[in-house]
């Protein structure tokens, strides 16, 4: 039996090669080569365009450590990533639970569609819609004042909460989808068994449902945390004067001041920090999963 | 004997035909790179130019001077005409991004004000690298609904009454030069950076958000979210004339930053003749008068164009007045070191605001 398995896996690679080739070729051309070029740029003093002189340097990486500005911003971005992930769990997990365990048939499909819907619209359109809702005299302000007997002034636009709202809205579907998949896979009889053996609803949640759906939670959290730390569009449009984050500074280096080497170096520092965080969290997460 | 000759003949014909069609194709289009909504992309202007010359105009836009430089650096040969602030002309020329212009082909060039045409920022080694188009000010613009009487001093931006209703552009150089004027310094020779920093630091809590395009500014004003902010004179005129917004330009007594916008032809342009025709059309008095009346514009560098405006026109009366000329400071080129220093200061200010 064991021999057969071994032969099977040895045979496996060769026939699989033609199937793998397109994907790996694509990854090489579209991801690996440009990324290597960026690594190369990050060690250069200047871009070799228009016959400019350039040399190799570590200065771009040193710039990160010599100015407190970048580390301050990186911490702000990591905090933003954590907060957005947390809110996505708070909002997304119960929604996924209801979708997986409570709703059935048509109503589940309808609710599912509503969760997926933001995915089908352009990110910029979503952000500008939020701008119309959140600003003073915007939809939220007008609607609340029309209903409430007293006058309140809601102006969330150009603030930290506005950035959080915009990002949570963009990323919450990831959390719903990943949690839905793991929650759906939990056998209902396990929950019934727990209940019949005397566990309270709360105990069933903490001892059965959450541990079993942990892989989905973790996958969702990683899918959300990583892009949010590097986000720049939402902070720039919704954040106003408080919208400066690590991602916007990287964007500035590429678009505004044409300092690609520094922008590339800052990006790779971010990549390294995110990888370190994920690596540190790996043992804990593996145990939990 | 016959075969090679026939082959040679055919090859020559093929080369000739392909060269001809290539030239014809390339000659049809003039690719223009400019700010969005800044004259060159007006539909009526494009239509007039296309009708008069037979060239087809293809517009592309940028949101900052650095983006413009990035676009011509990374797309060599794509653009035929590019609008460059004179203070950036040096940098573009040194980077071999733009080529000398044969001004004898531009019939309107002779009417350009001598001080603008002869600007050392646009002329290098006796060659012209930029044709002055319009000039204007980075001054203040106010929301007419928020003021009974227009303010006269730049200090209005720091007035606690406008807290959270002030807007400035997200641009390091502009912010630092604005700080220099507010602290009574020469924008091209800032001696006391600490004073600039202190001024801007105290301005930060007043600010609602940063703008980067005219559209941002106009939308903030249209939704009545701002009282006062830095703005370009041409843009303020356009907001008033074209978009009918309650905006007034204020040239503060402390002064304002003046800039000169010019047209250049990038190296590798496939249609230099079309580019020359387009630039000549852009500095034509007829185009300018129509632009000011229909849309609103900065001040033309062409003296005949300004003289063609009505006597009481803002661009002729106020901007042309010697009293204003004394107050304004023309922007000189900024070196890379200065720019990086300004950017570092600006980023620090933006981070500390949290």
Helical segment tally of chain A?
A: 12
Q: Which architecture of chain A does the CATH hierarchy give at level 2? A: Orthogonal Bundle
* Sheet/helix structural class of chain B: alpha/beta
Mean residue pLDDT of chain B: 89
Count of folded domains of chain B: 2
Gross morphology of chain B:
globular
H/E order of the elements of chain B? HEHEHEHEHEEEEHHEHEHEEHHEHHHEH
Helical proportion of chain A, percent range = over 70%
Tally the beta strands of chain A: 0
Number of helices of chain B: 15
Commentary on this structure:
The complex is a heterodimer of chains A (289) and B (354). In chain A, 79% of the residues lie in helices and 0% in strands. Chain A has 289 residues and is an all-alpha fold. Chain A has a single domain (67-288), classed as MetI-like (MetI-like fold, Orthogonal Bundle), CATH 1.10.3720.10. Chain A starts with a helix and ends with a helix. Chain B folds into 2 domains: 29-135 and 260-311, D-Maltodextrin-Binding Protein, domain 2 (3-Layer(aba) Sandwich); 136-258 and 330-352, D-Maltodextrin-Binding Protein, domain 2 (3-Layer(aba) Sandwich). Chain B is α/β, with parallel strands linked by helices and 354 residues long. Chain B has helices at residues 2-28, 43-53, 65-74, 86-94, 114-117, 172-182, 193-203, 214-222, 233-241, 272-282, 285-294, 303-307, 314-317, 322-327, 336-352, and strands at 29-35, 56-62, 81-85, 98-99, 123-124, 127-128, 131-143, 166-169, 207-211, 228-232, 247-250, 256-266, 299-300, 328-330. Chain B has 15 helices and 14 strands. In chain B, strands 1, 2, 3, 4, 7, 8, 9, 10, 11, 12, 13 and 14 form a 12-stranded mixed β-sheet that branches. In chain B, 44% of the residues lie in helices and 20% in strands.
